[in-house]
Amino acid sequence: VETSQSLEEIAEAKGMFAPRVTWVHHWTPGLFSFRVERPQSFRFTSGEFVMIGLAQPDGKPLLRAYSIVSPAWEEHLEFFSVKVPDGPLTSRLQHLKVGDRVLIGRKTTGTLVTDALKPAKHLMMIGTGTGLAPFLSILRDPETHERFENIVIAHTVRQREELAYHDFLYEEIKTDEIFGELLRDRFTYYPTVTRGEFHTRGRITDRLRDGLFRADLGLSIDDRPDTRWMICGSMAFNKEMIEILEGWGMDEGTRSNPGEFAVERAFVG
Ligand code: A2P
């Protein structure tokens, strides 16, 4: 601790929370996840993000937007982060240990919520890198399963080691006590790797354009009107996905004006 003020005091003064870290997991040298205790009054909608951070030496909060990985009903809050070697925040966050405190804002927000989408049969959640985070929340929200019959999470990364949550999405969720039965026949995990060996190679955008994605899922162009999309990744990826979806005649939705797809623009991968 570099400051004379404790993180709890700083949180109090700024109207934030300072929960303790309960779990840390490093996926690769560049990616990790962590959990904090959920403050009792903390509420959010699955798919939203919140400001997270630490205190600077002068006591000012250093914050960044993080999508919440855990669903809205879960007792902890989980986050998935890159480790940027010279990043002001992540170079410090990556050293978090169980028992440390982090700053968390009170206000959650975001456009990647099921309310932004018109009702349909299929929900495709397409992400790159840590853009996977909000989909892990949405996947485990009962509301999602009331609204959509068939759910797909596509995750594109450079190297297969970066497929964080792979075992969870590929295997564990299907035997999960709560979601196992519900998801077994209705959920498909679709990982792709762009710069290394893997059974499914290449950018998801290319697979969407050339029809491989829908062929792999057993869908046809006729299923498009009954399909909704959620997009979360780097700016270049988001832009390309919007071009593809708009090219198919789809409109972006918001909470007040639901559409065919939703994009998280606050996210910086
Ligand atoms: P690629 O390896 O071909 O650049 P990053 O780590 O740069 O954020 O990228 C994460 C993943 O997203 C990588 O697999 C990368 O593929 C892919 N990606 C980056 N930009 C785009 C884009 N415009 N469209 C589709 N995929 C992209």
TrEMBL record:
UniProt keyword annotation of Acyltransferase present: no
Protein name: ferredoxin--NADP(+) reductase
Coiled-coil ranges per UniProt: none
Reaction equations catalysed: 2 reduced [2Fe-2S]-[ferredoxin] + NADP(+) + H(+) = 2 oxidized [2Fe-2S]-[ferredoxin] + NADPH
All copies of domain FAD-binding FR-type, residue ranges: 14-115
InterPro entries: Cbr1-like_FAD-bd_dom (IPR008333), FAD-bd_FR_type (IPR017927), FNR_bac (IPR033892), FNR_nucleotide-bd (IPR039261), FNR_type-1 (IPR051930), OxRdtase_FAD/NAD-bd (IPR001433), Riboflavin_synthase-like_b-brl (IPR017938)
Required cofactor(s): FAD
Listed EC numbers: 1.18.1.2
Family designation: Belongs to the ferredoxin--NADP reductase type 1 family.
Entry annotated with the keyword Cell membrane: no
Enzyme class of the recorded protein, top EC level: oxidoreductase
Species whose genome carries this gene: Sphingomonas japonica
